[in-house]
Write a structure and sequence with these properties.
Blueprint: H1 8-17, H2 20-25, E1 27-36, E2 46-49, H3 51-62, E3 67-75, E4 79-87, E5 93-103, E6 106-116
Parallel strand pairs: 1-6
Antiparallel strand pairs: 1-2, 3-4, 4-5, 5-6
Length: about 120
């Protein structure tokens, strides 16, 4: 029996169009998300456990006035990596390197390492 395939096109569209429900639907129920940046260093990253917590994160992110562009993707049967570039209206830019570990066509583990311009509020 073939395992389910991950739909990267859905992920790209959901990120670029700010669709939190579509984003949350891509995660396994027991998924784990880790985010590392200047304010959340490797020794104390942000960790979200479970689809409900991750869905809340995406609702917050998608409620902001930002643009998102996804590119440089590498898609395999068990792992996806890509770069996401975001821009805020005040000119602040964010670049994120994202790695997703997949299980049964859903995201089981999500790691984002991101860098922000020094403009504006880094806790957006």
């Amino acid at each position: 029996m073939a395992s389910a395939r991950f739909d990267f096109g859905t992920l790209r569209r959901a990120l670029e169009h700010g669709d939190p429900a579509a984003l949350a639907s891509l995660y396994a129920e027991d998924a784990e998300m880790t985010i590392v940046d200047r304010n959340r260093p490797p020794s104390a990253p942000m960790r979200l456990l479970g689809r409900p917590a991750i869905a809340g994160f995406w609702r917050d992110v998608c409620s902001r006035s930002t643009t998102h562009a996804v590119g440089e993707e590498v898609v395999g049967p068990d792992r996806v990596a890509f770069v996401e570039r975001c821009a805020y209206p005040d000119g602040c830019h964010v670049v994120s390197a994202v790695t997703l570990d997949l299980r049964d066509g859903r995201i089981a583990r999500h790691l984002t390492v991101q860098a922000w311009d020094e403009l504006g509020d880094p806790e957006r």
